[in-house]
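Format notes (please read before filing issues)

Several people have asked whether sequences and structure tokens are stored in separate files. They are not. Every record keeps both together, in the order shown below: the sequence lines, then the token lines. Line labels are part of the format and must not be stripped during preprocessing.
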Amino acid sequence: MNITKENIDALNAVVKVDIVAEDYQPKVTKLLTDYRKKADVPGFRKGHVPMGMIKKQYGKSIMIDEVNKLLQDSLNKYITEEKLDILGNPLPRVQEDFNWDAEAFSFEFELGLVPEFEIDLSQKNKIKQYNIVATDELLDEEVKNIQTRYGKMSAIDEATEHSNVTGTFVNEEKGINKKSTFLVNDLKGKKNEKKVIGAKVGDVIELETKKLFEDDHKLQNILGVDHDAIHDLDVTVTLTVEEITKTEPADLDKELFDKLFADGSVTSVTELKEKIKEDAEKQFLQQGDQQLLNSVIEYLVENTKFDLPADFLKKWLATAGEKPLTEEEAAAEYEKSEKGLRYQLIEGKIMKDNDIKIDYKELVDYAKVFIRQQMAQFGNMNPEEKELDDIAGRILQNQEEAQKLQTQLISQKLLAFYKENINFKTKEVSYEDFIKEVYK
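Then the structure lines:
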């Protein structure tokens, strides 16, 4: 057997694999001998069927199987030993005059090669990092929300400006069918308030989703719509009123503080606001980090220039899935996936150049943190270590779940690396201004 590689250019190569009879014939002969020993053919004793008959019946199919196995194994071994960085999988070239009746065969495969490139992380103040703070207004609003949640509620006959309305929002075209509760004066604009004020149980009200609430994220929670869809949502929904209540706010006293913090850690409004601020800014940090990571990815993709073997990748995409794609479909798929592929290559190079990696123990520990958080939500604050190990083991046996956790952990490590190695332009903002800037 002989394997050679010809570089077409920096991004494309062709590997040629020459196979002769000596490479596959010993294995074929052995398999045919085994077939002969086991063959049960009428008119012949078992094990005494003429070899010519066995060859005629099974010889060609066995030979083709063995050549294909030898070809695949040899090609994979060659790519590994030569340390070829390839994209996708090798694509066999079609040979119109190929003949399986020959004794020697030549196969050719197209390869798409990973491009060589450099990554510049030295640019200053090109990427904005948000430091999101909980403002006094937000803290005051959250204190009011707590007073409302723990207040005394009573039913009333019709909706007022300060009443709570519970009902089901429906829009069949967008698949909206959600029962929610909202405060009437949270509605944006007098026009919307007028539609609801005076409503009674059983009334059906038509509302426009555009500018229904000041905060689109409140609308997202009320309608149960995906985050990406909510900002441009402009449809009519029907609200069927099911309950109208008013709430007498709870007093800010020891009884309320003890309900919120049974350990007695909060004894005043000032301490309550400190707790709210701490919790809020932890959540803001997570959102700010995700936005920062998205900004870094966008920056690196836009500013790390290299070519890709586009024609090869389109051909590969046409055959890679369960269903073959047309040239037009493959080209469209390439356009959709190109940016993701570019960042995948950039990410891989950053990890390789800076020895960023994860081992199985790290993945288990990360899974256990995730499991512990989930169990805490259901009141199990101190699970045993063995229980966590068992659950983590089961989760990581699921390839999809394991891949998801691994991706999250890698993102965390890369974010930490970016924070240490990139000079960001830092901006302190309120959560409201963060939402306006990022999702405008």
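For reference, the curators noted about this record: The longest strand covers residues 236-248. The domain at 2-113 is CATH 3.30.70.1050 (Alpha-Beta Plaits).
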